[in-house]
Amino acid sequence: MTIDPRSPIYVAGHRGLVGSAIWRRLEQAGCSHLIGATSAELDLRDRAATTAFLAEHRPAVVIDAAARVGGILANRDHPTEFLSDNLRIQVNLMDAALEVRVPRLLFLGSSCIYPKFAEQPIRESSLLTGELEPTNDAYAIAKIAGIMQVQAVRRQYGLHWISAMPTNLYGPNDNFDPASSHVLPALIRRFHEAKVNGDDKVVLWGTGTPRREFLHVDDLADACLFLLKHYDDPAPINVGVGEDLTIQELAGLVARVVGYTGAIGNDPTKPDGTPRKLLDVSRLRDLGWAPSVDLEPGLAQTYAWYLDHLGADR
Ligand SMILES: NC(=O)C1=CN([C@@H]2O[C@H](COP(=O)(O)OP(=O)(O)OC[C@H]3O[C@@H](n4cnc5c(N)ncnc54)[C@H](OP(=O)(O)O)[C@@H]3O)[C@@H](O)[C@H]2O)C=CC1
Ligand SMILES: C[C@H]1O[C@H](OP(=O)(O)OP(=O)(O)OC[C@H]2O[C@@H](n3cnc4c(=O)[nH]c(N)nc43)[C@H](O)[C@@H]2O)[C@@H](O)[C@@H](O)C1=O
C-alpha cells in the first residue's frame, strides 16, 4: 500500500519514546502533514474530545503510540490505571477513527500480551494459549482487546487496520524515572549516578536471570513505516531483533558503556516478571524487514542522549 507523503497522518502519543521516533521517521520520509497533540491538548480518555479531534483532522493514517506505559513495578502496583486508561485511550481513538472511516491504522501492542510460559521464541500464534504474567496482566488484557478491536473493524467494515507487537524498546525520549521506567533506562541512570557518586555497588531488581530482547526505537519506527506500506493482515505481527540476553548480562553491558567499574548486586525481593520473552520475528523478516541498530552502539547512543538531556549535572 502506498502512503502519500502529503496525506494527513496522526501520530497519537507523538512526544513519547515510540511516537517521537515514528514522527522523526515520517519526517525523514518526506511526510509533510503530521498531526500530533499532547495529552494536555487532547486527553484520549475523553471520548467526546477524541471524536471531535478526529472529525476535525480526518487523517488518512492513524498510528496509536499513546498509552499508559511503565516498567514492571509500575505495572504491578497500578493495574487499575493500566487497564482502564489503556482501554479508554484505544477504544476512544479507534471508535473515532472508525466514525470518519480512517482507511489505515496501526495499533501498537506489546510482547507482554503472550503467555508467561509461551514456547520460545514466541510466535504470534501463541496469543491466548496460556496464562499471562501477573505483574502486567491488566496491561496485557487491554492490549489484547486492542488487537481484537482492529480485527473486528477489519472484518465488519473492511478497513485496512493492523496491529504490531514490539519487544522491549529503548532510545531517545525514554522514561528514566527510577520508579516507573523499564529496565534499560533505569540501569543507564543508576550506573551513571553510581559512577558520578563514586558508589562501589549497584543493585539490580530481581535475580538478574530473566532474559529480555531489546530493540532500538528508531528500528521500531522504521518497521512501523514498513508495515504500513507492506502489511495488511488481521493477525498481529511481532517486531524485534530475534536475540535476547539476561538482565545480568545487560547490566554488564550498561556498566561498560557508562564506565562504571564497581560491583553489581541483586535484590531478589523485587519481581523478575516473565522468565523469558524472545519474539519469533520470522514473519517480519520474511516480508523483508530487519533491524539495523546493534545493542551496544544503541546503548552508547542512548547514554549520550541521556547525558545531553537529563543526566549531565547529576
Ligand atoms: N517502551 C517499551 O518498551 C514498549 C512500548 N510499547 C508500546 O508502544 C506504545 C508507546 O509506548 P512508549 O512510547 O514507550 O510510551 P511513553 O510513555 O514514552 O509515551 C506514551 C505517550 O502516550 C501519550 N499519552 C498517555 N496517556 C495519554 C492520554 N490519556 N491522552 C493522550 N495521550 C496520552 C503521552 O502523551 P504526553 O507526552 O503528551 O503526555 C506519551 O506521548 C505503547 O502502546 C506501548 O505499549 C510496546 C512494547 C515495548
Ligand atoms: C515492555 C514490557 O515491560 C514490562 O515488562 P518487563 O519486561 O518485565 O519490564 P522491565 O523492563 O521493567 O523489567 C525487566 C526485567 O528487568 C529487571 N530489572 C532489574 N533492575 C531493574 C530496574 O531498575 N528497573 C526495572 N524496571 N527493571 C529492572 C526486572 O526485575 C525484570 O526482571 C511490562 O510491565 C510491560 O510494560 C511491557 O510491555
Automatic annotation (TrEMBL):
Its EC number is 1.1.1.271. It comes from the Bacteria. Pathway: Nucleotide-sugar biosynthesis; GDP-L-fucose biosynthesis via de novo pathway; GDP-L-fucose from GDP-alpha-D-mannose: step 2/2. Substrate binds at R190, W205, R212, D272. NADP(+) binds at residues 13-19, 108-111, 143, 166-169, 182. The record marks S110, C112 as: Important for catalytic activity. The keyword Isomerase applies. Residues 9-240 form the NAD-dependent epimerase/dehydratase domain. Belongs to the NAD(P)-dependent epimerase/dehydratase family. Fucose synthase subfamily. Catalyzes the two-step NADP-dependent conversion of GDP-4-dehydro-6-deoxy-D-mannose to GDP-fucose, involving an epimerase and a reductase reaction. This is GDP-L-fucose synthase. It comes from Kribbella lupini. The gene is fcl.
